[in-house]
Amino acid sequence: MILLIQPPFVQLNAPYPSLYYLRSFLEARGNTVQVDDHSIGLFHRIFSPSGLRRIFADAEARLSKGPALAPELEAIARRYLSEQDLWLAHIERLVAFLQGKDREYAHILALCNNTLPTGPRAEALLTAHDFAILPDQAPILASTMLADLADLITVVLDPTFSLVKYADSLAASIRSFSLAASALDGYILNTFYEPLLKDTWDQHPDAPELIALTIPFPGCLAGALCAARSAKAYYGQQVPIIAGGGYVTTELRHIKARGFFDYIDFLAYDRGYGALQSVLDYLRSQASPGNSEAPELHHCIYRSFSGAIRGSAEESLEAYASLDRDATGSVFPDYRGVPFDRYIIPVDDTNPMHRLWTEGRWLKAYLAHGCYWHACAFCDVQLDYIRGFQSIPVEALFKHLLWQSRETRIRGVHLVDEAAPVSSLIELALLNRAAGLPLTFWGNIRFEKAFTPDVAALLAAGGLLGVSGGIEVASEAGFKRLGKGIGLKDVVYACAAFKEAGILTHAYLIYGYWDQDDQEIIDAAETLRQLFAAGLIDSAFWHKFVLTRHSRIYRELAQGRHRDLQVIDEPAPEPEDFFADNDLRFAGENRYDRYTEPLDRLLAEWMAGDTDRPVQEAFPFTMPDPTITRNRVQLLLDSYVSDKEKTMVPPGGTQNQAESQGKTLQQSTRAIFLGTRPWIQHRGAQWNLTWRWNFIDWTIKISRPERGQGGKVHPKKSSVHQSSNRKSENEFFIITGNGSTPERIAQQIEMLIQRLHSERGEEPEKIYGQLSEILTPEDAPTAWHFLRSAGLVTIPNRS
């Protein structure tokens, strides 16, 4: 049996996907696999009546030893202890409520009476609401109360504890393993995690063939080391343990620390499938007589049975490299049997986009491995997780997710791509729409020109909820310097398309580049303010720039560029203790710390809807005025509206029309109708064809011509026009000639629209030609424009 373990802590609302990809991979190859999520398991050990009794007792003992905290903090801690009976009475219901159970508890929280324990966070929230919240707001209060309890643990008992990470500051690019290993002395690990590990091993009295730990983030390292130490103490030093994940792949590629391998025997890098299989093959070969040593393993550093440290993160063996490629395109995560109701759904923000990260039990999967752009200067473009782009067969993934949704009853999908390819998103939306929208999904993208209004509308109709993407430095010079491959116009156009389609948007920003000055920071802030003011961005987050060893910037530095960038690469005190080394310090980086609080304050204001204040007023020190105009984004929005109108011209329009559209029309090779199914109504001599699109009734009204003087009708041509009444822009009028009846025209257009409801749509040229036959070539352009405004979109064919 192979035991896969997620060490604490990761997000608590859904299982982290890596182990469930590995489960599928291993089981398909005939292995027996067990997956244990110790992140949510440890959470329940701590936040339970027995866990809180222990915490309160240990906190009281800690405070009784004498002054340990500042007076104001000790007073707060004493208040927790005085309310411990209330906390103990509430903790089970509080957690159950956050799991989506015990919905009646919302009314207790809404009462805000003396039976409710609170800490500083909850008290601040209640004060802001004048101690009057609705039951619908109770999840935010419950989440805040949980954060208050976590603060008590952090302040009094374990400063390295957090709800979603542990001792991350002792793991992120720490050169000395001895320092990283000091986290093993932490209160939470020894008091709560060690007993959980003992219970885990007791469930598997026979030693597993292999224990695999995933370390996606620095905040999981201490938990992984603790699990490895405990396993070897229980089963003996001979039990093999392997670790992989994002932290291992980025930070530990040059590890020399021999002490680390007292805990973990193998480190697997990059995609992991080939490395894991090569380790299993090695271990199984050792069971055969005469196999005392093995050759180099695939993307693996390990301690052999002889005690030597061998291997390399870069070592690639073709048989296993082929396995990596094949598995990337064919292995999908298997969440069957996962007790999703154990996970909590904290609501730590009212912002609808922010809530996507935690408010939902998502099935996590990716549409592609790596990033199709892989050229941004700050990114780890030298590593396979960015550079090694490989798309995934979308139809196979969709069928798998449908199966998973039936097995788990989870219908939301979080796409965890570095940047989901546009073509793959379109395909997923088409498949999901054709299947009746059984899934909803969201994920990370690049804000690029391929996200046209039509594409965004299709994605929304196909189940897309929201997107997050990097803007980084919101200035034209910044985009160019960082090699983003986009400009501000692309960002505005993409975000406008998403917002028109009802899709949430989140932006990532970076500040603190080694060569960044006040002007660029204030210009970026002003641009982001304008994006919020225009309603183009729902939420955002500022990250402080971190120089990494595997970035394009560092590679260019080694080539003699960026002479103003001075790297401070600290060696380990002892060469054999050398540990993590991806993040690099550089001269002058601390001078950017002063921007953190003002930028965060601005974001909080903008997300709350306050975008009027001049950005420089948020800084407690002198900043220059922005150099960009205050209507820069609005001007781009105006251009977006104008350019969007140009895409409405029919296929095969005039040369000037085609040129005005650029390449959009040439790439839009199929038309799909996203409105509802139309219905026909007969009112006297008039026939109406009506459907719904964007919460509006759109109607084509068809009638015979009125008799002119002498009782004659206009004999030969039909004619069309759109209502001149602005309140009736959703109405379109057709006056028939003698060649066809209103009923017949209504039926022909209805059949045309019904066909365009199909999964793949049809060629725009073909549809436009048929529309010209139903009406006349002279009148078809006006009718086409009306349909394009009322739910008819044109999208690229699958490349």
Features:
alpha/beta; seven-stranded mixed β-sheet; globular; 799 residues
Give your account of this protein's structure.
The protein has 799 residues and is of the alpha/beta class. The protein is built from 30 helices and 25 strands. The strands form six sheets. The chain has a seven-stranded mixed beta sheet. A six-stranded parallel beta sheet has the order 8-11-12-13-14-15, with helices on both faces. A five-stranded mixed beta sheet has the order 20-21-22-24-23, covered by helices on one side. The protein is globular, with a radius of gyration of 30 Å. The model is unreliable at 654-666 and 709-717 (pLDDT under 50).
By secondary-structure content and strand pairing, the structural class works out as alpha/beta
Strand line-up across the major sheet? 2-1-3-4-5-6-7
Mean pLDDT: 92
The overall strand count is 25
| Helix segment tally | 30
If you compute it from the alpha carbons, what radius of gyration comes out, rounded to the nearest whole angstrom? 30 Å
Record the SSE blueprint.
Layout: E1 2-6, H1 18-28, E2 33-37, H2 38-46, H3 49-64, H4 71-82, H5 84-98, H6 105-111, H7 120-128, H8 138-157, H9 177-181, H10 187-203, E3 210-214, H11 221-235, E4 241-244, H12 246-251, E5 266-268, H13 273-286, E6 300-303, E7 309-312, H14 318-330, H15 352-358, E8 363-365, E9 368-369, H16 384-387, E10 390-391, H17 394-408, E11 412-415, H18 422-434, E12 440-445, H19 453-461, E13 464-472, H20 476-482, H21 488-500, E14 504-511, H22 518-533, E15 539-544, E16 547-548, H23 552-558, E17 567-568, E18 583-586, H24 596-607, H25 632-646, H26 655-660, H27 664-667, E19 668-673, E20 679-683, E21 686-693, E22 696-703, E23 719-722, E24 731-735, H28 742-755, H29 764-774, H30 780-789, E25 792-796
Helix pairs in contact: 2-10, 3-4, 3-5, 5-8, 6-8, 7-8, 10-11, 13-14, 18-19, 19-21, 21-25, 22-24, 28-29, 29-30
